[in-house]
Structure formats: C-alpha cells, structure tokens
Recover the amino acids of this structure.
C-alpha cells in the first residue's frame, strides 16, 4: 500500500481525489491547504489528517507520494522540498513558469532516486490517445492539418486571485494553451515555425497560434473572455482518409469511405465537479504514476526534454 499526501485543496484537487479513490494500492493519509476549511473538507471527502502547514505535514507524516495541486508558481519549490525528503512527487501542470526549473526539479529527483512527473492530463485522455495512435500508425493516411480549441472565461474563483496575476499563473499560455501545446510536442514533435496573433487587454486574453510542421500545420486557439462564456475544449484533425473531431465531449471519426464512428462514453468516467468533461484521464495519469513507483521504473511518458520545449515555445509566444 502506498501512502499519499496531497497539498493544495482547490478546484483541480477534486479531480485528483476522485482518481485516488479508484486506485486500491494507494490511500490518502494527509491533506494540506492554508485554508483550514479546504483542508477539513478534503479530509472529510477522502480521509487523511488535515494540515494548514506543509512543513508540519512533512515533519509529522510518513507518505510515499506527494500530489501537488497548488498554484503554478509553487509547484517546483514544493516538489524539490518533498523530493529532498525522499518522497515521490506528481504535480499538476505546468512544472513551473521558469524554464530552468525543469533541470532543477529533475536533478532533485535523480539525487533522491525518486520518481517525478508532471500531470499533463491530455497525454492520458482517451480521445487524445486515439488521435496520437492515428498519427503514429498512419491508420488514416498522412496528417494534413489540425485545429485545437481551449476557451473559457477569466477565472474568478482562485485563491487570492492568483490566476489573474501574470507573475504567478502565466495567464492563458500557462493555464489553458499549455495543455494543447504539450500534447502537440508529445504527439507530433517540435514545430519548425510558429505564427502568433493575440488580442489582450486587462481582464481578457485571446490568442491564435499556427504551428507549422514539415508536412502539416496545426492551428490552436485559447482564451479567457471577460463574460459568462462556457468552457469548451476540443480538436479537429484532417487526415488523408478521415477527419477526427472531438467536440461536446464526443470523438467522431468521419471516414472518407462514408462510414462514421462515434466513441461511446467511457465507463466510470470521473465527474470532477469543476466544469470539466467527465474523463478517466486524471485516473489514468495517477494510475500510471503509481505503477511506475511500484515497478521501480521511470515515468518516461512525460520527458523533461519535452517540458523544456513547451516552456521554450511559450516564452517565444509571450515575446510576440
């Protein structure tokens, strides 16, 4: 049995908690949030002793894995601290706002002989896994074009309004677009060129990026709008012999021969309660991490070189 500690009991922790409940080899033994009511509520939900001080939790509790669901700007420091105590670490995306933190955190993991992984959930999300498989196998011929969308309203719910603070959240590039960009780097490699268009003022941010590859291009858009705009995310990819479209939480494959296929709903999909689609993606990523820890193998489904490529591209996006 692996003992799990969690820190940061805000919105995304709900998806993680539901996933941990489904992993029989793991049990949450302690939870931490600087807001006492959040720590208590999480403890009542999943069990474990509630704390409001992370250092106190580290000193008093014994656990094998730390699950970090903190604000972005805290991920790297908390990961390094836990790794230094000999604890495996999985953290919500992104690893950091700083490019150099990739090497810093992975160096700490190597020194400790422990596993570290950034929970880039699209790599484990069924519909995106199907898309990557279509590209890898050439099942529908060569890829010709793609379009990815991730849109929502400017966040109003974050602790201390940290998400609206560019120095702490990185805004849309790090909060929203990083999902699609990370998947592109993972599935298709590094683009040869990037063309950016951005529309931004105080309280809203939209950008459209064209990623150019040698044989295809992918258009991606991401936004926070200053209105009651319902979150939506999806993709449409054009292959020689099929179009794969993921919209309204459904993936449909439109084949050139006139036959279509829509994937059925996932069994036991996690309803996370934070306006995100029901998915087993959060379970899949934590299940993968647990298996790596139990089997003593590296979490090479998320590689540090890919994380550095993503952060390097985002840095260039912010310069334009």
């Amino acid at each position: 049995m692996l003992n799990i500690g969690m820190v940061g009991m805000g919105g995304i922790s709900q998806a993680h908690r539901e996933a941990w409940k489904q992993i029989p080899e793991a049990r949450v033994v302690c939870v931490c949030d600087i807001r006492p009511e959040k720590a208590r509520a999480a403890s009542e939900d999943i069990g474990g002793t509630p704390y409001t001080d992370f250092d106190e939790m580290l000193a008093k509790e014994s656990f094998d894995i730390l699950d970090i669901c903190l604000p972005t700007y805290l991920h790297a420091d908390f990961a390094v601290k836990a790794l230094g105590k000999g604890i495996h670490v999985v953290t919500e995306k992104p690893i950091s706002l700083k490019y150099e933190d990739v090497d810093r955190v992975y160096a700490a993991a190597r020194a400790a002989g422990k596993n570290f992984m950034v929970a880039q959930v699209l790599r484990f999300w069924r519909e995106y896994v199907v898309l990557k498989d279509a590209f890898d196998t050439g099942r529908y011929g060569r890829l010709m074009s793609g379009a990815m969308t991730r849109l929502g309203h400017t966040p109003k719910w974050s602790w201390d309004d940290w998400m609206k603070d560019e120095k702490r959240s990185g805004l849309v590039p790090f909060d929203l677009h990083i999902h699609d960009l990370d998947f592109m780097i993972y599935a298709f490699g590094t683009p040869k060129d990037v063309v950016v268009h951005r529309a931004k003022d105080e309280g809203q941010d939209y950008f459209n990026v064209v990623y150019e590859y040698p044989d295809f291009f992918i258009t991606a858009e991401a936004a926070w709008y200053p209105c009651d705009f319902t979150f939506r995310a999806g993709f449409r990819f054009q292959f020689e012999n099929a179009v794969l479209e993921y919209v309204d939480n459904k993936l449909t494959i439109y084949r050139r021969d006139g036959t279509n296929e829509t994937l059925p709903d996932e069994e036991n999909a996690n309803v996370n309660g934070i306006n995100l689609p029901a998915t087993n993606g959060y379970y899949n990523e934590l299940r993968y991490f647990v298996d790596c820890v139990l089997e003593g193998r590296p979490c090479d489904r998320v590689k540090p070189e890919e994380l550095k490529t993503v952060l390097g591209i985002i840095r260039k996006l912010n310069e334009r």
